[in-house]
């Protein structure tokens, strides 16, 4: 069952048990890091829950499953954040409330999936709380969130929380290979077991930016650093998104360099570049690396539209250059 979704075996068993016998409709909360398959499993579970034939069959062709796969199921309600900030607005919850007066049409149940429940405006959350306090009969609510701390405790107390862990590296790599993403193993490692994040890294050419970050670090101790930087053409046509990817890669490199210094036996994000990173920072002290990491983080968080990214990056490189000399 739900073979298309990798990992999360314990959660699958738990959810599978809910499909046995007479179905109860508790309100559920799926939480855990972004991009690891919470929504995929929620959708498959919703399809199974509404199914009229064999909910354990991934390829069931009953009327309900066909309607669900065709994105036209009358008893499935999907709510997701709107606008640039992906907030869930009160109007959206009011819409759900209106639908609550109608009985299911095709299935014996209705499923309401609220994606990004941690991005709910307060008024929306209070409105939803009323619904959860007295859920309409036959309604199953599934809320999805990456930050459980952002869910009002009153709402949280109404939900059965199901925690999702990042995938094991091998599982994440399998997802990447299934989608024919080159260097899937490396991307899976860089994304900490989040296939969604790994796909994003592939799309933003993260490995190219990682190579550039390594290249700059290789020359960071050069006394003529500014002259070296002036020769880097790509520095001139960075935008905020590229700079963000670049800095993310630089942060992982610096973090790995610290792990190597500490002699930690843990696997690095950039395990494939372990020796190169060790050699770049061979004569750097741990406190200097830590300073460089914190400073890079500060620049990363301070990025916003309209900044001159070349100037920002050059300023950062100069600071790292100074720290590493200490
Ligand atoms: Zn079915």
TrEMBL record:
Q: Which GO terms describe its biological process?
A: DNA-templated DNA replication
The family database entries (InterPro entries) matched by this protein are listed as: DNA_pol_III_delta_C, DNA_Rep/Repair_Clamp_Loader, P-loop_NTPase
What catalytic activity does the UniProt entry give for this protein? DNA(n) + a 2'-deoxyribonucleoside 5'-triphosphate = DNA(n+1) + diphosphate
Report the protein name in the record. DNA polymerase III subunit delta'
- Please verify whether the record's keywords include Nucleotidyltransferase: yes
Instruction: Show the Pfam families listed in the entry.
Output: DNA_pol3_delta2, DNApol3-delta_C
Domain DNA polymerase III delta subunit C-terminal intervals: 241-321
User: What EC number is given for this enzyme?
Assistant: 2.7.7.7
- Record bears the keyword Transmembrane: no
What's in the keyword line of the UniProt record?
DNA replication, DNA-directed DNA polymerase, Nucleotidyltransferase, Transferase
């Amino acid at each position: 069952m739900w073979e298309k979704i990798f990992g999360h075996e314990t959660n699958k068993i738990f959810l599978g048990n809910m499909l046995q016998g007479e179905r109860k409709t508790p309100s559920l909360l799926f939480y855990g890091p972004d991009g690891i398959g919470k929504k995929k499993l929620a959708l498959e579970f919703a399809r199974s829950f509404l199914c009229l034939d064999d909910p354990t069959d991934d390829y069931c062709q009953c009327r309900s499953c066909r309607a669900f796969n065709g994105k036209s199921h009358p008893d499935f309600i999907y709510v997701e954040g709107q606008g640039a900030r992906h907030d869930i607005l009160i109007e959206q919850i009011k819409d759900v409330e209106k639908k609550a007066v109608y009985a299911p049409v095709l299935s014996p149940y209705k499923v309401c999936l609220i994606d990004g429940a941690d991005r709910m405006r307060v008024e929306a959350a209070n409105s939803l709380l009323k619904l959860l306090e007295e859920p309409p009969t036959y309604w199953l609510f599934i809320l999805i969130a990456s930050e459980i701390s952002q869910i009002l405790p009153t709402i949280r107390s109404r939900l059965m929380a199901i925690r999702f862990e990042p995938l094991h590296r091998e599982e994440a790599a399998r997802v990447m290979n299934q989608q024919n993403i080159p260097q899937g193993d490396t991307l899976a490692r860089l994304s900490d077991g989040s296939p969604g994040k790994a796909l994003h890294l592939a799309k933003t050419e993260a490995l190219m930016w990682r190579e550039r970050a390594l290249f700059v670090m290789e020359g960071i101790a050069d006394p003529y650093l500014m002259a070296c930087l002036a020769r880097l053409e790509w520095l001139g046509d960075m935008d905020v998104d590229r700079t963000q990817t670049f800095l993310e890669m630089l942060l992982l490199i610096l973090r790995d360099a610290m792990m190597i210094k500490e002699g930690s036996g843990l696997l690095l994000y950039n395990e494939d570049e372990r020796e190169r990173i060790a050699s770049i920072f061979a004569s750097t002290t741990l406190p200097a690396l830590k300073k460089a990491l914190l400073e890079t983080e500060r620049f990363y968080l301070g990025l916003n539209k309209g900044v001159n990214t070349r100037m920002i990056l050059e300023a950062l490189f100069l600071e790292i250059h100074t720290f590493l000399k200490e």
